Amino acid sequence: MPLTAFITGATSGIGKATAYLFAQNNIRLVLCGRRTEKLQEIKNELSQFTEVHTLQFDVRFKEEVFNAIESLPDNFNDIDILINNAGNAHGLATIQDGSIDDWDAMIDGNVKGLLYVSKAIIPGMIQRNTGFILNIGSIAGKEVYANGNVYCASKFAVNALNKGMRLDLNQYNIRVSAIHPGLVETEFSDVRFKGDTDRAKKVYQGYKALQPEDIADIIHFVVTRPYHVNIEDLIVYPTAQASATLLNKNEN
Ligand code: NDP
Ligand code: 8X3
């Protein structure tokens, strides 16, 4: 029986690239996001490789999360791999100037959303005594940078939850793992800068940023190790980046 993966944030960037790679490797997919048309478009493309089910919900709203997951048909109920990937930064501002709406979006989406989805899926894994939870953190969850305050806090929380989940779920044979990327060229900066595409593009200019496919490749590697192997925590930078703030850019 092929594995079934549940991917949040599958409509773009890292989640979408992971969906494509998983599909090509015969992993069945539950794809989640808020943008219905994107979900449908990806389902149409990937159905030639694997079985795909889509769920449209906003991770910030617990009723939406639980209703969506409860609506899964029987043949998609047993989730082998949960990729907690949905998330974004909203704004890049000092703590004194930051917007409360942005803070809410980051804490509610990146932290509470991850918790709601996990809470809905973990019982099935416990019952079956098997499962893999892979949390997408960030180098922002390892190192705080100026103006990153609340986004960094949300990713520090993901880092802590990743460790907490591993401790609590150890007795149930469930693998828990996190990948913490540096700069990846996705819609992330468009969202962070609220559609200021020029500013967003500049984030990835002057060096070769990680591509979403690079992270998908690592995710696939991590989840396909033999079952007794659990890669706990993995940081990945583009070669041009050495820390959250040290980036070797060619400014020509
Ligand atoms: P994208 O903006 O390209 O993708 C974000 C995905 O998350 C989209 O599919 C979006 O779907 C979904 N999403 C966002 N908010 C919600 C929400 N409230 N409810 C449901 N789905 C939501 O960015 P990335 O692919 O880069 O981001 C994926 C993860 O990687 C995030 O957790 C991010 O923090 C992390 N990350 C990104 C890095 C980068 O440099 N790009 C580096 C380190 C970590 P939709 O809009 O359809 O809901
Ligand atoms: C995304 C990477 O450096 O913008 O998590 O925080 S960074």
Automatic annotation (TrEMBL):
Q: Does the keyword Oxidoreductase apply?
A: yes
Q: Which Gene3D superfamilies match?
A: NAD(P)-binding Rossmann-like Domain
Q: Which domain of life is it from?
A: Bacteria
GO terms, molecular function = 3-hydroxypropionate dehydrogenase (NADP+) activity
Q: Is the keyword Nucleus in the record?
A: no
What enzyme category does the UniProt record give?
oxidoreductase
> What EC number(s) is this enzyme filed under?
1.1.1.298, 1.1.1.381
Stored SUPFAM superfamilies: NAD(P)-binding Rossmann-fold domains
Record keywords: Oxidoreductase
Taken from the record, one Pfam family name reads adh_short
Q: Per its UniProt record, what InterPro entries does this chain match?
A: NAD(P)-bd_dom_sf (IPR036291), Sc_DH/Rdtase_CS (IPR020904), SDR_fam (IPR002347)
Membership in a protein family? Belongs to the short-chain dehydrogenases/reductases (SDR) family.
**Protein name in the entry:** NADP-dependent 3-hydroxy acid dehydrogenase YdfG
Origin species: Tenacibaculum platacis
Q: What is the lineage of its organism?
A: Bacteria, Pseudomonadati, Bacteroidota, Flavobacteriia, Flavobacteriales
